[in-house]
Design goal:
transmembrane helix; DUF112_TM; transmembrane; 21 helices; mainly alpha; globular; membrane; about 500 residues
Length: about 500
């Protein structure tokens, strides 16, 4: 208990506090820019954390994640332009409310609901993760391999329109994870004589290259412009359109329902924020006393979607911390950040890095508070971000990517890696191949390889010995069936 309190005090140190504040501001600013989102913000911010302590670094990235969650709502509400698919649900009521002369009310509803949903999810994480980690420690290499396989199946099935493309992307990521030194024989693999590749591909360079750079280039190609009527920010407020605390309390059932849906979905790898947002919206429409008002600018609709998609972020850390499995792209980037700072996420983290885990919990709570404070105080300023022309802000972000990678990696090699993967990412976007699956495959690759190697040794190279591991056998057998069910249900929803 003393260690837990000490860890929480570490999170309150000036360095960690300022890191969280900086992360929240970066997340809100980048998230508010149409076309950019929280995963991009994290990818850009990772190089900034290389000289920080592990707690300050992870705290900053958590701040980026939470700030980006709210930042995405700004563009969705003021411009009807969602930066991520889940923000499309927010536009259903957010944009009509803003267009009707109440943009501040819409943004405040999104802010308060986002913080409330995030806080509920974090509380579930703090209460459940240590207990689940104890059970996870009982799983052997065979069971872990089965869990990893079914997790990748879930992610590949739900990321993108094609299962084949999802599996290909995950397999490509896992294959590229083999670059470096063989963990068993110490022999170089696919290094082509480059000493810089002995430690594997630089994850930050790959993530920024495949994720951020192609998206920025595509947005610049589009040359998207917004009408003056849509981008006036808060200038078109009619009278006092503020949301009072009492009015927000009337939305408490909607917020808690959305938080529950988001937490449940976030705890399962691959389901994601989009499903949570639209499920919460559908549930709210079903239980609403005035369902006909949803879609016309109802604060109830905004609260439903923002509480749900924000609740996913905290719950996504449950499989990450207890099993080492990232549930979505944001969690995968956080895994990379953990590894960069010498910390391996998984059940053993609660034994080896107890102070870091509980410091992380405290930093998450702190980040929620800072999103509320910074979001409330800077609402008018952040609303102006959507008015900045794309040809101004995107080159600045691109320059930050290049400089960040060069400085953090200490040379041009990582920059060339970033540019090479930018080309790969560009073609993946054009061919609609899931970048989410690719990144998660790259992050999970070493863990999959290790667990399979250990399983082969444990089973004495006898496939029949897997019968002694019924849990793993059930998971292996269920993987294709689960994938088929998910694809069938998704196709039904898209057809309907």
């Amino acid at each position: 208990m003393d260690m837990i309190f000490a860890a929480m005090l570490d999170a309150l140190s000036l360095t960690t506090f300022l890191s969280v504040v900086l992360g929240v501001m970066i997340g809100i600013v980048i998230g508010a820019v149409p076309g950019l989102n929280a995963p991009m913000a994290i990818a850009v911010a990772i190089p900034l954390t290389f000289t920080m302590t592990p707690l300050a670094a992870i705290g900053m990235l958590v701040g980026v994640m939470k700030g980006g969650g709210f930042g995405g709502a700004i563009g969705a509400i003021l411009l009807n332009t969602p930066g991520e698919p889940h923000s499309a649900a927010t536009t259903l009521d957010g944009y009509p409310l803003a267009k009707g002369g109440k943009p501040r009310r819409a943004l405040q509803t999104a802010l308060y609901s986002s913080v409330a949903g995030d806080s509920c999810s974090d509380l579930v994480l703090i209460l459940l993760a240590p207990t689940l980690a104890v059970f996870a420690l009982r799983a052997g290499p065979v069971e872990l391999a089965a869990i990893l396989v079914i997790s990748l199946t879930l992610i590949a099935s739900l990321s993108g329109r094609s299962l084949a493309k999802g599996i290909f992307a995950a397999a490509l990521g896992a294959f590229l994870a083999t670059v470096g030194v063989d963990p068993e024989t110490a022999a170089p693999r696919f290094t082509f004589g480059q000493v810089e590749l002995f430690d594997g591909l630089p994850l930050a360079a790959v993530a920024i290259g495949v994720l951020a750079v192609p998206e920025i280039i595509l947005r610049l190609q589009e040359g998207r412009r917004y009408s003056a009527d849509a981008s006036r920010g808060l200038a078109n407020s009619e009278g006092d359109d503020r949301l009072t605390f009492g009015e927000f309390l009337t939305l408490r059932r909607t917020v808690f329902r959305g938080a529950g849906i988001g937490t449940a979905i976030g705890a399962l790898p691959g389901l994601g924020t989009t499903l949570a947002a639209f499920l919460s919206y559908a549930a709210t429409k079903r239980f609403s006393a005035a369902p006909e008002k949803l879609g016309t600018g109802a604060t109830e609709g905004i609260a439903a979607t923002e509480s749900a998609n924000s609740a996913v972020s905290g719950a996504n850390l449950i499989p990450l911390l207890t099993l080492g499995i990232p549930g979505n792209l944001t969690a995968a980037l956080l895994v990379g950040a953990f590894l960069i700072h010498g910390v391996t996420p998984g059940p053993l983290i609660f034994q080896r890095d107890t102070s870091l885990v509980y410091g992380l919990f405290a930093a998450m709570i702190m980040a929620n508070v800072m999103v509320l404070i910074i979001g409330s105080l800077g609402l008018r300023v952040f609303a102006l971000i959507v008015k900045v022309p794309p040809f101004v802000i995107y080159p600045i972000v691109l320059l930050l990517c290049v400089v960040g990678i060069y400085v953090s990696q200490g040379g041009f090699f990582a920059v060339w890696v970033m540019l090479a993967f930018a080309v790969l990412g560009f073609f993946m976007l054009k061919l609609e191949i899931s970048i989410v699956c690719f990144i998660i495959g790259l992050v999970l690759g070493p863990m999959i390889e290790l667990s399979i190697r250990q399983s082969v040794i444990l089973l004495s190279r006898n496939p029949a010995a897997i019968l002694d591991h019924p849990f793993a056998l059930i998971l292996f057998a269920a993987s294709p069936f689960v994938a088929w069910l998910l694809i069938r249900d998704r196709n039904r929803l898209s057809d309907g």
